[in-house]
């Protein structure tokens, strides 16, 4: 199976011996957005107590991140177009499957509905396995949020490690026995999203599951289902947002047809990133050599990541940074990688760049910086967009069936970039001198980029300054930079870009006439 992320990222305690490299740690601290370790332990010292309200608050915060990123209600006929209709398969069985769903509303409880749902849908999906996973956890504390869905859908040919394996799962079903839990309004209402507490909690839950799902795998998009006693909704998630169907009667054969189509769909159609091979079947001696060169543990799984036809292939281990704690956005992951063509270690960045005329690909920015002789800048050796990977949710914004039209939803393009230099993060400095030197070098790079190359970085943060093996600083991550041309500095995007923790306060407030302040050099610093 292509696409499974080897594991969460860990940072080691840095010593002089491993200076300039990042190897998997023996600790269990997952990374947050800025690259600093955070605990995977329970949020309170006493689990399962009344303090669970703090956990609920963290979960419901996820719903507010989805404001302006939900599109619906999509007609089921339009939604079916995401997957081709197979030329083979048990078409007659689809109607039989739909008839079996009629017993759901008589189940008496949510848990009692699980086996009925599974028995009804299984006959038309010969390539899939539907499993009751409600009593199991996977990454049970995904950045402080529980991942505990009801039904998991797997390929029959995957080798999962247990009942709930978030790294192998194809699709997640969330079952609710009360329509009051539906986060979306009836089809004849003016607004699509509901704002009751129960509705917000459900939206937060399914968004958390979708976020954890995409973070655990190499994915371009995923599908999920939200099921009620008499109807259901289908959802398609990508880095721009989510498209949701209107309510589909469980007796409507088109609900079963979707899973019939999914069963026969290719990995790419299901949303897997086929440019990543997580089972490259390397010779033992070769794999051992690569792990040694990259300073990885012997048990670290390797994957092969491609930049596309005519470009290089790279062997990767665990990511050194993951920025996938939110469903939408650039969702950056970085790796120490082995370039099979040049036979050397490199730094590889896997991300979803903002696809807009206002932003040029990051490698073009590096070329301009090098041409202007800007110091303390990494060397880009290769980069490019990946296959046809682009978010499709924005395609639906102007459809006639859309309610509460999102304003300025972003489109993202899958993109990878390779740098020659491999540094370590700013938090891993070995001395005060090294820290101050790295920051001084980054400030110099920022100044020369602005005055000599006419480029403003616009995303200065602790995670965007790298320290080389020689103790010098590099200013990296130029993907949201812009020309200092006056017109180009006007931010026409619906959302601010950058790392919120390090953003200038004045940029977060629109002026009285509603215009957004232009970002300048001082705001970066």
Structure description:
The strands form 5 sheets. Strands 3, 4, 5, 6, 7, 8, 9 and 10 form an 8-stranded mixed beta sheet that branches. Strands 11, 12, 13, 14, 15, 16, 17 and 18 form an 8-stranded antiparallel beta sheet that branches. A 3-stranded antiparallel beta sheet has the order 19-21-22. It is globular and about 70 Å long. The chain has helices spanning 52-65, 76-80, 92-100, 110-121, 197-215, 253-264, 267-270, 284-293, 362-371, 432-452, 521-524; strands at 30-31, 37-38, 70-74, 128-132, 151-155, 171-175, 222-227, 231-237, 242-245, 248-249, 276-277, 303-306, 313-316, 321-322, 333-339, 344-354, 380-390, 412-419, 424-425, 455-456, 465-467, 473-475, 482-483. α1 (52-65) packs across α5 and α3 packs antiparallel against α4. The two termini are 45 Å apart. The chain is α+β, with helices and mostly antiparallel strands. The model is unreliable at 5-55 (pLDDT under 50). A hairpin with a 5-residue loop joins β1 and β2.
């Amino acid at each position: 199976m292509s696409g499974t992320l080897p594991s969460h990222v860990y940072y080691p305690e840095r010593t002089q011996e491993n200076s300039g490299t990042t190897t998997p740690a023996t600790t269990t601290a997952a990374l947050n957005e800025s690259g600093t370790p955070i605990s995977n332990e329970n949020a309170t010292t006493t689990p399962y107590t009344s303090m669970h309200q703090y956990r609920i608050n963290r979960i419901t915060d996820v719903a507010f991140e989805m404001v302006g990123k939900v599109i619906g209600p999509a007609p089921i006929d339009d939604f079916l177009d995401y997957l081709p209709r197979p030329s083979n398969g048990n078409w007659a069985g689809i109607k039989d499957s739909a008839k079996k769903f009629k017993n759901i509303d008589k189940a008496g409880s949510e848990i009692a509905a699980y086996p009925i749902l599974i028995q009804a849908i299984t006959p038309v999906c010969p390539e899939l396995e539907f499993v009751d996973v409600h009593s199991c956890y996977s990454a049970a504390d995904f950045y402080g949020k529980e991942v505990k869905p009801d039904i998991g859908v797997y390929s029959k040919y995957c080798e999962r490690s247990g009942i709930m394996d978030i790294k192998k799962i194809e699709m997640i079903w969330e079952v609710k026995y009360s329509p009051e839990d539906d986060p979306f309004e009836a089809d004849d209402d003016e607004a699509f999203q509901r704002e009751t507490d129960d509705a917000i909690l459900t939206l937060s839950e399914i968004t958390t599951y979708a976020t954890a799902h995409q973070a655990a795998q190499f994915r371009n998009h995923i599908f999920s289902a939200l099921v009620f006693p008499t109807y259901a909704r289908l959802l398609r998630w990508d880095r721009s947002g989510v498209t949701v169907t209107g309510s589909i009667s469980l007796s409507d054969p088109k609900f079963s047809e979707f899973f019939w189509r999914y069963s026969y769909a290719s990995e790419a159609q299901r949303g897997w990133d086929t440019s990543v091979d997580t089972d490259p079947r390397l010779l033992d001696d070769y794999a051992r050599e690569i792990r040694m060169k990259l300073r990885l543990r012997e048990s670290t799984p390797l994957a092969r990541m491609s930049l596309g036809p005519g470009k290089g292939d790279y062997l990767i281990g665990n990511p050194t940074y993951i920025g996938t704690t939110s469903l939408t956005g650039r969702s950056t992951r970085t790796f120490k990688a082995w370039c099979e063509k040049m036979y050397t270690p490199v730094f590889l960045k896997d991300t979803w760049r903002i696809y807009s005329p206002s932003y040029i690909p990051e490698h073009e920015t590096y070329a301009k910086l090098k041409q202007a002789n800007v110091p303390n800048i990494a060397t880009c050796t290769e980069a490019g967009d990946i296959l046809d990977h682009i978010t499709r949710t924005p395609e639906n914004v102007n459809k006639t069936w859309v309610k509460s039209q999102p304003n300025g939803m972003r489109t993202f393009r899958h993109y990878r970039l390779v740098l020659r230099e491999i540094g370590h993060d700013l938090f891993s400095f070995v001395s005060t001198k090294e820290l101050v030197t790295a920051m001084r070098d980054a400030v110099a790079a920022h100044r020369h980029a602005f005055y000599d190359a006419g480029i403003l970085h616009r995303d200065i943060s602790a995670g965007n300054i790298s320290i080389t093996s020689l103790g010098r600083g590099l200013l990296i991550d130029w993907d949201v930079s812009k020309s200092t041309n006056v017109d180009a500095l006007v931010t026409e995007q619906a959302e601010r870009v950058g790392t919120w923790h390090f953003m200038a306060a004045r940029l977060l407030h629109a002026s009285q006439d509603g215009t957004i302040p232009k970002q300048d050099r001082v705001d970066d610093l």
